[in-house]
Amino acid sequence: MPIDYSKWDNLELSDDSEVEIHPNIEKGTFLRLRQQKIRREREERRQKREQLTLKIDLHKKIREKLGGLKSELGESDIEKFASAMNSWKAKMDNSQAVQDKLNKLSLGGNDGNEANQTPGVDHQENQDASALPTFDDMIASLFQQIRAEIEKEGVVWDTSDKKVHGKFFEGLESHIKRMGDVISQAQKDLDEVLKEEAKHISVDELVHEGFNHTIISNKSTNKEGQSVEKSKTHSVELLNPQRPVHGDEKQGEVDSTKAQPTEQTPYSDYNQDDYEYPELAKDSQKFAELKTMEATKDYMRDHPSIVSEQKSDQILAAAFDLQLKGKTKKAKQYVRQSLIISYVHAMGPGGPRLFFERVAVEGSKAHNMFTKDVEDRYKHIVTRCEYLAKENENDQDAEVIQLEGSHPSEYQGWNIPDENNPDSSEDFAERLAKFKALPEDLQKALQVGTLDAVNKVLAEMSPTDAEKVLNECSDAGFLTAAWIPENEGDNNEASAATSGDVADDEGDGDDAKIDAVHPDQTREDKA
User: Fold this and answer.
1) Of the candidates 203, 232, 257, which is a domain's last residue?
2) pTM for the complete prediction?
3) Mean pLDDT value of segment 101-113
4) CA 478, chain centre distance (Å)
5) Residue 81 domain-assigned?
6) pLDDT in tens, 248-299
7) Where is the stretch described as Disordered (predicted)?
8) Residues 46, 156 share a domain
9) Can you give 460-514 as a three-state secondary structure string?
């Protein structure tokens, strides 16, 4: 199947091998002139398209407003007409200044039809908004034109005169009709421009901007204003650490200038670790404490290095900590200051000026959007803090203390005093009194002689109570237990030891010491 290249026929190229160049004209000059012509015609078509589109939209809106003003102007009531004209009198008297603006910003030119003169948009970047007339100004100028037309016919302008009343609405209808003709003609011209644009393929139609990312690199400065560069030292593990050190080389260390090329990459100052645990720096804290937009603007002007994602993250993390501590008002202020940095950073190099000229203006759409963003971000932090607080309470409620032995065998008895079989030791009475002072269910569990029985009782206690009774048991020596080896038949001595009485403290290891641990504590942690 042959490939169709016809869609590239309309591609405008300044350097085209098929174009014949006169031998007396230099090729480079010809190509530059051809390139300028292509760009100039393309820009003219674009401007004309935008002007015609704006002209059509404005004329439609004015015609719609005039249609709605008929009833308000008293088309069928002369008294209402006189009252309405009095309310428009001040603007009609100032119509000459408005007309000057219309003539200056006219899109349709002056073809004898004053209604064609519609305000447009100055394509210069610094267009003064006060130079653009409002819809009321344009309507007042139109009323003044109708009045001038009536006075040209020799009729004295008197709003209470029926003749003036009738001629005014006749003139109004005539202007509305002519606006319709202007819209139709402008639409035809716009169709012609669009048709002409379709004949040419431009770069704007072939490609588009996929993404745009701005990085502002602000190096920290010392008090003298000189740039401070970070130095990095790489530690190296040596295979032979006892070898002699030559020159100025330090054992176990390599200078970063030797380990890396001298030319730094654009991301040499980037350190990912800085973003893992953001700590509030002094300048970040000072910026976060600012309460007014004016103070924020001044600080940002004097300290441009504050505009970075790292500073914003630091302040936001501090806001989270403040909310956890219950300082809600201050936490919300920190959230606002953090978002100011985020907004300014996203706006690029001119971010501070754009932010304080647009977003910081109260009542503007951008300011309302920023305020909503602050509220949403703060609500998210509040919700998250409430969840963490509740989760912490649940963890404390679920925390228990359990016993874990140093030997994996089954325990068959605890070193507790037996009231029915008293021994001859001097501290028997004291140990028995301590045993009787323990909770009754714990006494029964110790008499059972297994870890599971004791742990079952401890699980029903609070961590504080469990820790208290375990300390008492440990002080009295109750937590020493006899044990049975796993391979009972292979060790007769261990079997005999477990079948008899508990060995003394200086025995051969038949006693096992018990430790109290939390459920999430492993044996390695305990060691």
Assistant:
1) 203
2) 0.36
3) 49
4) 60
5) yes
6) 444 444 444 443 433 333 333 334 344 444 678 888 889 999 988 889 989 9
7) 108-127, 217-274, 484-527
8) yes
9) CCCHHHHHHHHHHHHHHCCCEEEEECCCHHHCHHHHHHHHCCCCCCCCCCCEEEE
Q: What is the pLDDT of residue 337?
A: 92
Q: Specify whether 422 is located in the same domain as 435.
A: yes
Per-residue H/E/C for 37-101: HHHHHHHHHHHHHHHHHHHHHHHHHHHHHHHHHHHHCCCCCHHHHHHHHHHHHHHHHCHHHHHHH
Residue 56 · residue 187 · CB < 8 Å: yes
How far does CA 485 lie from the centroid of its chain?
A: 62
Contact status, residue 445 vs residue 453, Cβ threshold 8 Å? yes
**What Cα–Cα distance (Å) separates residue 316 from each residue in 322, 368, 475?**
10, 21, 49
Give me the pLDDT at residue 31, please.
83
Claim to verify: residue 366 and residue 426 sit in the same structural domain: no
Helix axes 162-198, 78-93, angle to 10 degrees: 60
Tokens of 224: 């003298």
Question: How does the average pLDDT of the chain come out, rounded?
Answer: 72
Cβ atoms within 10 Å, residue 438: 19
405: left (phi over 0), alpha (psi -120 to 50) or beta: beta
* Buried residues in 130-167 as b, exposed as e (16+ CB within 10 A): eeebeeebbbbbbbbbbbebbeeeeeeeebebeebbeb
In this predicted structure, which of 72-76, 107-111, 353-357 has the lowest mean pLDDT?
107-111
> Which residue, chain included where needed, has tokens 């609070």?
462
Judge whether residue 116 has pLDDT over 50: no
Shared domain for 48 and 146, answered yes or no, is yes
CATH number of the domain where residue 320 is located: 1.20.58.610
How far is 99 from 91, CA to CA, in rounded Å? 12
Show Cβ contacts of residue 26 under 8 Å, excluding neighbours closer than 6 positions: none
Q: How far apart are CA 192 and CA 186, in angstroms?
A: 10
Task: Quickly count: other Cβ atoms within 10 Å of residue 448's Cβ.
Answer: 14
Are residues 414 and 393 part of one domain? Answer: no
* 331 and 319 within one domain: yes
- Residue-wise pLDDT tens digits, 334-361: 999 999 999 999 988 888 888 888 888 8
For residues 175-203, give the mean pLDDT: 88
Give the burial string for 317-332 (b: 16+ CB within 10 Å, else e). bbbbebbbeeeeebbb
Number of separate domains in the chain: 3
* Residue 411 domain flag: yes
CB count in 10 Å sphere of residue 296: 22
> Domain range holding 469?
402-526
